[in-house]
Design brief:
binds 6-O-phosphono-beta-D-fructofuranose, elongated, 7-stranded mixed beta sheet, Rossmann fold
Length: 374
């Protein structure tokens, strides 16, 4: 570990918060940070429900002993919320800038640093507190969506992806027994990492992600092609952010009418895309079609061993940055290394699946339809 300051500038107390959607591994990171800094005599305060706890001065102390058994516990012991310091909800349904209150809590408690564990929104809020309020922050990238900019991987992703793959494995056997098309709805917000990872790991036949707009015709044709090869069931994984291509010149006239009816239905309803997709594919292919939505299952339960390892390393590196006063950084994984990346280079950006990503190439190589070509 880099040299820790032994002088008056030594870090004495820090705050930690977890913000945004929860995910497996948050507690493992909290554990690693607390253990690593407690060793150096640093006092730790955990703010409750994300930035809300900081604004409302609600916290609990966190000691080494409090972290026993936390490595495998899902969720977050500090609880979480999606509230941002500059947009805190008010009782009348509006929002109010409470940045001042958040900074006041930090100053009153004499903290040396605030560690924020969260996804893209959290990185942005942490950067806001640092640039507007002048406080010291260190962050780590959390999300099953795996879309935080600047890091090769986020903690929580491996668990979400593994749960998705295991669920799809189970859907495979029932789809096969009934000769059905099974559409599997997965989370992922506006990126396709989760769908792509779960889909490739479970051998899905079609994987639709936001980065590659899909054609209903192409998807239908790929299912029919499988039928022609004697494969009487198919698995279609759909990321929540996936969208259909705008122009579909090749779509048959009859299909076009049906598809536009379905599109209008989608626009005027809160139905997930998978319902629209299922109706279209059933009518276009004549195959019986069912939908399974994985939803919040992908965020629940214990972290995988790979995530536990990642979380321990992310937490240990975050603690190192705190103790050596390398503030204003997010811990990122780059190759085999855990490195600081300036928050100003991360805040407000998102990491989409690059169109030349090796996993997309591998998926195409094994004849997985990505919705743009058969
Ligand atoms: O960011 C994680 C995530 O689970 C996304 O995949 C999903 O879009 C979103 O959170 C759901 O948010 P909420 O928990 O607010 O319903």
């Amino acid at each position: 570990m880099a040299e820790i300051s032994k002088n008056a500038n030594r870090v004495k107390s820090i705050g930690i918060l977890t913000s945004g959607g929860d995910c497996p591994g948050l507690n493992a990171v909290i554990r690693a940070i607390v253990r690593a800094v407690a060793h150096e005599g640093v006092e730790v305060f955990g703010f409750l429900e994300g930035f809300t706890g900081l604004v409302e001065n609600r916290f609990q102390t966190l000691s080494d002993a409090d972290c026993s058994g936390l490595l495998t516990v899902g969720g977050t012991i500090l609880r979480t919320s999606r509230n941002k310091p500059n947009k805190m909800p008010t009782p009348d349904g509006g929002v109010r800038d409470m940045t001042g209150a958040a900074i006041e809590t930090y100053r009153r408690m004499n903290l040396d640093c605030l560690v924020c564990l969260g996804g893209g929104g959290t990185q942005k809020s942490a950067f806001h507190l640092m640039s507007e309020g002048g406080i010291n922050v260190v962050t780590a990238p959390k999300t099953i969506d795996n879309d935080v900019f600047g890091t090769d991987i986020c903690f929580g992703y491996d668990t979400g992806m593994t749960i998705g793959a295991e669920a799809i494995d189970r859907l495979h056997t029932t789809a096969s027994s009934h000769h059905r098309v099974m559409i599997v709805d997965v989370m992922g917000h506006n990126t396709g990492w989760l769908a792509l990872g779960s889909g490739v790991a479970s051998g899905a036949d079609v994987i639709l992600i936001p980065e590659i707009p899909y054609s209903l015709n192409v998807v239908a044709e790929s299912l029919l092609e499988r039928m022609r090869h004697g494969k009487r069931f198919s698995i279609v994984v759909v990321a929540e952010g996936a969208t259909e291509t705008v122009a579909e010149p090749s779509r048959k006239r009859a299909d076009r009418a049906k598809a536009s009816e379905l599109k209008n239905k989608e626009a005027s309803s809160s139905q997930p895309k998978s319902i629209i997709l299922a109706e279209y594919l059933q009518s276009a292919t004549g195959l019986e079609t069912r939908i399974s939505s994985l939803g919040y299952l992908q965020r629940g339960g214990i972290p995988t061993p790979a995530d536990r390892i990642l979380c321990t390393a992310f937490g240990a590196k975050a603690a190192e940055l705190v103790l050596t006063r390398k503030f204003g950084n997010m811990v990122a994984k780059r190759g085999e290394d855990f490195v600081p990346v300036p928050l100003k280079d991360v805040a407000g950006k998102r990491r989409a699946v690059p169109l030349d990503h090796p996993l997309l190439q591998a998926a195409r190589a094994v004849n997985t339809c990505l919705g743009d070509r058969t």
